[in-house]
Amino acid sequence: MKIKNFRKVLPCLLMAATLTACGQSNESSQSAGSSNKQAAFDLNQTIHAYTRDTTSGTRDGFMTKIGYEAAKTDDSKLKSTVQQTTGNGDMIAKIVADEYGIGYFSFASAPDAQKQGVKTLTFGGVEATEDSILDGSYKLSRNFNYCTKTEADEDSIKWTIISAFVAFMHTEEGIADIVGKDGIIKASSDVKKWEDIKANYPGIEDNHSAITIKFGGSTSCEKIAKALTADFSKRAGNFVAEHNHTGSGAAYKGTQGSDKANGMDVGFASREFEVTGAEPLAAGTYGYICTDGIVVGVNAKNPTTNITADQAKGIYSVDGTINTWADLK
User: Fold this and answer.
1) If you placed Cys at 240, which of 12, 131, 212, 280 could pair as Cys (CB 3.0 to 4.6 Å)?
2) Nearest to 166 by CA among 190, 130, 189, 200
């Protein structure tokens, strides 16, 4: 009886063993397929590096932090193959479209970049997070700053709106509720509410719908600038906020420099102003907003996960020896 039962069971066991073996074979095949897909990234391909233009605060911060200040405003210090982009959005689009591309952009733009197919790298083994940027362990960071026209350049109503806007940026509603969502902020114990200070700006809630205030400068600051003005306009008589962000270099030029006649009322820079040099802003017309990180991004197909300052310099420098992805090893 046992023998008969064994004869009945044996074919089933053999079939099960065969199916199991097939399953393992398929699994191995799938693993091999996955490996083949990963291996499709050719490490011997040339690195396609992208940069911002010479007026960009993001470029200033990036080149400074990788130890290559000579290339902040001098394209001749970069390899001839390095291509320029017009802003964070264009930089991200270029990397998405280029499997062998690499570039850098504002930490505030990282979530959008990742959704589009960009992988952000750790820098010196440290991931860019709000905590790591604020505690200084993530070394690739810079400040967001603002500047304005001077009181003498504006009529009293516009100057009231401009001054009130600057104050609003540093209130709880501005720096915490708005900037804190899209930028990195340093905690401050003396942040006040807008309701507590608006009385310092008489008439700020009057109808200002016929008044246009012009904003511009850094593209990295554009997102928080638009969020701030959209909120503040409702609190300040619905003035019209006009934005034209082309780069940090335009902030000084458009407010107090060579383009101030047709420039802007409030400018933003994602770097420090050269107030003792090429950007002699008047005292009391410029200041700090928040701290933002700069992240290095590659195409999602790229297996690279980390980059160091020396490696980044080797990729961008005209004398750099890192030319292919295999050189990063």
Assistant:
1) 212
2) 200
State which amino acid sits at residue 312.
Answer: A
286 near 147, Cβ under 8 Å? yes
With beta carbons less than 8 A apart as the criterion, state whether 186 and 134 touch.
yes
Task: Report how far Cα 278 is from the mean position of its chain's Cα atoms.
Answer: 25
Residue 263: pLDDT band with limits 50, 70, 90: confident
Residue type, 1: M
What whole-number distance in Å separates Cα of residue 280 and Cα of residue 140?
27
Q: What is the pTM of this model?
A: 0.77
Question: Contact, 168 vs 232, CB < 8 A?
Answer: yes
252-288 burial, b at 16+ Cβ within 10 Å, e below that, comes to bbbbbbeebeebbbbbbbbbbbeeeeebebbeebbee
Q: Within 10 Å of residue 56's Cβ, how many Cβ atoms?
A: 30
d(CA 121, CA 99): 15
Residues with Cβ < 8 Å from 233, sequence gap 6 or more? Answer: 239, 240, 241
Average pLDDT over residues 109-131: 95
Angle between helices 309-316 and 57-65 (to 10 degrees): 120
- Asked if pLDDT for residue 101 goes beyond 60, the answer is yes
